[in-house]
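Morning - WTA inputs below, output right after.
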Amino acid sequence: MPSEGLNGEVFYPSSEVIEYANIKNWDELNKRASEDYLGFWESMAGELDWFKKWDKVLDDSNKPFYKWYTGGKCNISYNCLDRHVKTFRRNKLALIWEGEKGEFKSMSYYALHRETCKFANILRSMGVKKGDRVTIYMGRIPEIVMAMLACARIGAVHSVVYGGFSVEALHERIEDSQSKVLIVADGAYQRGKIVPLKEIADEALQRAGGIEHVLVVKRTGQEVNMEEGRDMWYHELLKLPIAKGDGFIEETDAEDPLFLLYTSGTTGKPKAIMHTHGGYMVGTYTTLKYVFDIHEEDRFWCAADPGWITGHSYIVYGPLLNGATSFMYEGAPTHPYPNRWWQMIENYGINIFYTAPTAIRGLMRFGDAWVKRHDLSSLRLLGSVGEPINPEAWKWYHKTVGNEKCPIMDTWWQTETGMFMITPMPCVPLKPGSGTKPFPGIEMDIYNEDGKPVKDDEEGFMVIKTPWPSMMRTIYNDPDRYVQQYWSKFPGVYLTGDSARRDKDGYYWVIGRVDDVIKVSGYRLGTAEIESALVSHASVAEAAAIGLPHDVKGNAIHTYVILKSGVNKSEELKEALRQHVGHEVGPIAKPEQIEFVDSLPKTRSGKIMRRVLRAKALGQDPGNLSTLED
Ligand code: WTA
C-alpha cells in the first residue's frame, strides 16, 4: 500500500475501475515485463501486423544507436488503417473532428484509409518516394492526419511543424530536413481569427531553398499567393485520375525512419528527433492500450496538437493502431466561451480525455459553473502531460471534471521517448503530482552529480537505464550531438534532462528541466531560439532568456536585452521586440517581460549564466559565482 503523497493524499481506484480495466494487477504485469523486457516487447509486437517477422528484438551491438525488430518489415500506416479495414472495424469511426466554427466531420476507418491512399497517390505523383522528407505545416484539421499517414504509407519521412510556429522556425526546419515537398494549409482558425499559414510559408520559402512542390490544402478560403509551377491546390489534384488507383504501401524496414520532429535542446538550434516505423509503432500501441485502457467502444480525446509529440503519438498513431476512435478539435478551449471543451465531451460522449496542466489551470480560473453546465458522465479516465501538475489543479480536475470517479493518468515522457515512460494505469493508486512509476519493462533511476543513485526523497538527475522500442534513434544529421547530449553525462544511461525525486514507495516526483529548455504552457522552447530571434532584430546586440514560474503557464519567458549603442530604450521598442519574436519563432515564444540591461552575467568563456539571472529575478542566492567573469 503506498504511503501518503507529498500533499498527504492517496487516491485509490474504485472496484468498478479495476473491474473494467484491461490490466487489473499492475505488479503482475510489471514483474513479467521486468524479468524479461525483450520477451514483453516481443509479445506486444506480435499483436500487430508484419510483412516479415523480425530476426532480433533488440540489436545493441552499436550502443547507444539501438535498433529494434531488426530484419522485420512493417508499415505503421498499414497497421493504423489497412489492418482494421479488413475487420469489423471497417465501418467504425476512426476520426471525429470539430472545427472551431462548429463544423463537424467524421471518418470511418474505411474512409480514412481511402482518403489517405488518395493523398499518398498525389504525393507519389509529385515524385515523393521512400526516404524523402516532407514538411507539413497545418492546423488541427483531418488533412494533417491524412498527410502524416500518407507519408508513412509510401515510406516518406514527415516533419510536422506546429502551426503556431512562424517564419524562421519553419525556415530552419525545412532547411535542416532538406524537404522537397511542403504540405501547407491556406490558413488556420484560432480564436476566431485566421493564422495565414500559406503567407508565413511563402516568407519562409524565400529564406529556404530546396522545396520543389507546395501542396496547399484549403481550409480558411482567403486569397493566397500561388506560385506558378511550385504551388498546387490539393482539392484540385484530388479530382485528377492520379489521385485514384490502388492503395500502394511501401514495405518498410522496422528501422526505416518514420518521422522527424524538431524539439528544443540545451544549446543552439532545434534538433530533429528521428523515430522509426517498427519500434515507435509497438511503443505507442502498447502504452495507449494499457495506460488509457482502450476498449473497443471508447472515444479518446487527446487535446494536444499534431505538431508536437503528444499529437503524433496519441492523436494519430496510438489511437489508430489500437483501432480506437480519436477525436480532434481545431480551435481554442475558451472560444467562444470557456465551456467549449466540456460541451464537446458531452456532445460526442468522450470517454477518455487527455490534456496539459496549463490548460487545466487556465480553465479552472473560470470557475466550476462552466463545467457543471455539462453532463460529463461519459468520462472514465483523465490524463495529464507536459509538465508537473500541481496538486491543486489535479484535485480540481479530479473533482470537478472527473466527478471523483475518473483516475488521472499523469504521464511523463518526451519527444525523444516517443511513448509514456512514467505513468500510472487505471488500477494504480495515485498521489497528486506524481506520475507514479516507470512503465513496465522500463528501468529508471535518479543519480547525483557523480552518477550514483540518490537516496529516497533526494533530488537528482533522472535517467533511463533500459532501451525501449520507441526511443529516438538519433538526431537527424547530427549523430554526435545525440551521443553527447543524451548518453555522455553518465555512461550507458539515457539522460532525460529532468530532475526528480523518488519516494519510499518508488513513486517519481518530476521537478523540472535542469537545462536551458523552458516549458511555457506545456510547449517546449529553448532559450537559444528566443535569444537568436531577439538578436536578429536590428536594435539588439545581445540577449538572454530564462523561464520564471507563472501561475497558469507553468513558466513564463523573461528576457534581458543589451541594445546596440545609440539605440534608445523605450516601451515601443519592447513591444516591437515582442512582435519580432512572435514573427520569427511564433506567438508562444513572445517574452512575458523584456528588461534592457547594460551587461549580462557570463562565465570567463563567454557563456551566459542564466542561473544567476534566475536567482536574481527570484530574489534568491545565486550560489557559486567563482566562474563569473566579472
Ligand atoms: C516535461 C512532451 C512532469 C518534462 C510529452 C520533459 C513532464 C518534457 C510531464 C518533454 C509530466 C512532460 N510531468 N513533467 N507528466 N510530461 N514533462 O518533448 O520536463 O514536449 O522532459 O514532450 O516535458 O517535453 P516534450
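Note: The mean pLDDT is 96.

O.
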